[in-house]
């Protein structure tokens, strides 16, 4: 704790002084362009790995970077997503998983969670991930299986994200883009899900294509209308 208190003093003397003007602007209004959803794991620092400044990222964190489907028990997550999209007008949502994720390890080994009932219940929102791994990746080594689990979970949670009405409504018109990322703790490398290749590729090689059905963006209503959706 003493380390934290010393850290606050150092922040006030150093960084706050450096960014004083920015903080005074941010005190009046925030206009983050990105909702960044990631794991609570202490080894990930979203602002550090994206070189972001205060005010750039609206961040939601929990064990396993999970997005409960709309209407289920995750009211806190639902409210955070709704606020970011409908009130703040973020343009991009990133779900970022990471290597060596303890939550994903627990998902693969629920027998280790007997004394952690709240964690076990929370990971119910990743049950589809567990089933995908069980059915399609059973021949992998434990380490490979964990990596596959982290990757598949990002895709499962992206699907859950689509169930949130404010997200769904904006995906149709391309007003918002959603992205699946992986952060590798040991190398600092970030990978992005590339829809065209159906796999994660280094972020620098990713096209950043929105994960939306582009045909839908241009679709005219079937019942006589000719204007594309706006
Ligand atoms: Zn994690």
Number of helices: 11
Number of strands: 6
Count of the domains: 2
Give the N-terminus to C-terminus distance in angstroms. 52 Å
Q: Which structural class should the secondary elements be placed in?
A: alpha/beta
* Small molecules held by this entry: zinc ion
Descriptive report:
With 230 residues, the protein is an alpha/beta fold. It folds into two domains: 1-30, no CATH class; 31-217, Beta-carbonic Anhydrase, Chain A, CATH 3.40.1050.10. Helices cover 42% and strands 15% of the residues. It contains eleven helices and six strands. A six-stranded mixed beta sheet has the order 2-1-3-4-5-6, with helices on one face. A hairpin with a 4-residue loop joins strand 5 (190-194) and strand 6 (199-202). It is globular and about 55 Å long. The termini are far apart. Zinc ion is lined by residues 39, 41, 64, 98, 101-103.
Give a quick summary of the entry.
With 230 residues, the chain is an alpha/beta fold. It has 11 helices and 6 strands. It has 2 domains: 1-30, no CATH class; 31-217, Carbonic anhydrase (Beta-carbonic Anhydrase, Chain A).
Secondary structure blueprint with pairings:
Blueprint: H1 2-13, H2 15-18, H3 20-26, E1 34-39, H4 46-49, E2 57-62, H5 75-87, E3 92-98, H6 102-108, H7 117-122, H8 127-136, H9 142-162, H10 165-173, E4 177-183, E5 190-194, E6 199-202, H11 214-217
Parallel strand pairs: 1-2, 1-3, 3-4
Antiparallel strand pairs: 4-5, 5-6
The site of zinc ion has 7 residues, from helix 6.
